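Reviewers asked in the last cycle whether our approach scales beyond single polypeptides. To address this, we selected a multi-component target totalling 492 residues and predicted its structure end to end. The input consisted of the following lines:
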Amino acid sequence: MFQPRGERHWIIPDAYIPPTSAGKLESHESICVLNCSSEEALLKITIFFEDQEPLEEILYVVPGRRTKHIRTSSLTKKGKSIPLGVPYAIEVVSDLPIIVQYSRLDATQAENALMSVIAYPIK
Amino acid sequence: MFQPRGERHWIIPDAYIPPTSAGKLESHESICVLNCSSEEALLKITIFFEDQEPLEEILYVVPGRRTKHIRTSSLTKKGKSIPLGVPYAIEVVSDLPIIVQYSRLDATQAENALMSVIAYPIK
Amino acid sequence: MFQPRGERHWIIPDAYIPPTSAGKLESHESICVLNCSSEEALLKITIFFEDQEPLEEILYVVPGRRTKHIRTSSLTKKGKSIPLGVPYAIEVVSDLPIIVQYSRLDATQAENALMSVIAYPIK
Amino acid sequence: MFQPRGERHWIIPDAYIPPTSAGKLESHESICVLNCSSEEALLKITIFFEDQEPLEEILYVVPGRRTKHIRTSSLTKKGKSIPLGVPYAIEVVSDLPIIVQYSRLDATQAENALMSVIAYPIK
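The resulting structure, written as structure tokens, was:
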């Protein structure tokens, strides 16, 4: 049995899906999760906007002893997904401790730009 | 009622508004704030310079259950704004716990460069 | 005698070796370690994948009062190395406290993109 | 009187001065410090290498209520400075609490790449 590691609650204030791609790669963001435990972790992801109600509790499962690099554009809730080109923020709540990192590849221009942060853990 | 999350006091030592833009996008920085609570949060933003007195307590309101990605070039106090091309630092004090991330897009050259950090929380 | 500093256990959820390089520089990632102590530190590095069993406990030694910027492509265990172009995550366990930062240079396109995070310390 | 904020001891494991610049901007790194207190802070900066003895205790003063974005290429000790193109690590010790962020602009190629981290605080 492997122990869970990290925290159950993580925040990413600066999320944004660039609306266009000009190079070989496609602009995208990923919520990168590591689940160190033997058990699967159930994530509830909430999306906060600047001027509308949040999109709440999108479910996602990360198997035990696995990482998942979750493309934000793949997340949906009752047919709703995250709009492109809109500033938003992400909350990840998990039933087991996990570790969360957020990365963005911006290919608006032909050459790429990258940014990454470890999400902020709520303890 | 939703609980506030995070901290009331955050620091960003490396801030800088690139003076020029060459590509499709405009060089800019954002202070990205998430307010998880049901109540609005009142922010006081202080700007520190290398060789002059700080520009103190610029006010900004973030509504409850919302994020705001605040462009630093939009901040003003008594008609003063942050000069371009000058190294500075940012302090954010809030009456409610929030979470703060800082990101910069540098479009000095036609292709973009990105950087981002979670601000440093003072506990 | 110099004291060890930092933590014994660090996590990097977002790792990825870009499969191609187009510019003057080669795409690569580094696990950057500082060992402040007088003694050498023995690291055990485990690689987690999205859909296969982890590659466990690759050994690495960092001498006392030295830094090592470890290229992930150089890590091997029983002839196995980390595949290119595959999302993965990294766990670093050390017998002495150390400090760990992760950086990636993506030269998929001719112009470079950089990202970096301080790894997440498990306390 | 303003209170000092932050920590007295900070680590940056991944430092590197790119040896060349091809664009309009020059490749460089900065150690960005904010001193929130009314008093000046005295910093002792130590540089760790992969395969030689550290360059110890370079002195630097940050005035009260000021930020300094210190170019690493400007640091010298008994005529020695940090060599270009060599992986190294940075330790900052201060007599007063401060906050430290590290940023690198890589202009090896004509288009720029940026990375930034809040340094790791030793508590």
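Residues 52 and 90 of chain A are 14 Å apart (CA to CA). We regard this as preliminary and will revisit it once experimental data from Aim 1 are available.
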